[in-house]
Amino acid sequence: MWGDRKVAEFPRTKHTELKTMDSEIPDPAIRREFESDGRLTRTNHSNGDVWFYQGETGMERKVRVEYSNGYKWFYDGDKGTERIVRQESPGGYVWFYEGKSSTERIVRTASPHGYTWFYTGKRGAERIDRTEFCDGRT
Predict the structure, then answer these.
(1) How far apart are the C-alpha atoms of 47 and 37, rounded to whole Å?
(2) For the chain, what percentages of helix, strand and coil (3-state, to nearest 5) are there?
(3) Which terminal CB of the chain, N or C, has fewer other CB atoms within 10 Å?
């Protein structure tokens, strides 16, 4: 039923419930999943990406995105000000970030081979400052 309040029923799974949308009709390419108390827990995108959320109803914040290409991005912070803290590649590389939302910069990269690179510089201008080898040498 569509009227002043729009109601959309998404395909039901363990976490999917009937949800009332106060704004526009939801994008049919995104399937949203909710807990029984109304908390958004994840969104499944038509390209295969999956976004995960945590928090109280209405204050859900993005905590992880799993991209269809195998990359995973991890976030911290309150709703609307989430910042990237870590990125993992399917090949085992892990990038660590610091900074406020939209100004994050890479501070360290760990390779699956035991090497670690440390960076200095502002976002977009990071450069390797030090390399730590798997035997502890720098």
Answers:
(1) 28
(2) 0, 45, 55
(3) N
Q: Are 105 and 128 in contact (CB under 8 A)?
A: no
E strand spans, 1-134? 6-8, 19-21, 30-34, 40-45, 50-54, 61-66, 72-76, 83-88, 94-98, 105-110, 116-120, 127-132
For 26-52, what is each residue's pLDDT tens digit?
566 889 999 999 999 999 999 999 999
Instruction: Report the predicted TM-score, pTM, of the whole model to 2 decimal places.
Output: 0.77
Identify the segments of the chain with pLDDT beneath 70: 1-28
What's 96's DSSP letter?
A: E
Buried b (16+ CB within 10 A) or exposed e, 92-122: eebbbbeeeeeebbbbbbbeeeeebbebeee
Beta strands in 39-82 (DSSP E): 40-45, 50-54, 61-66, 72-76
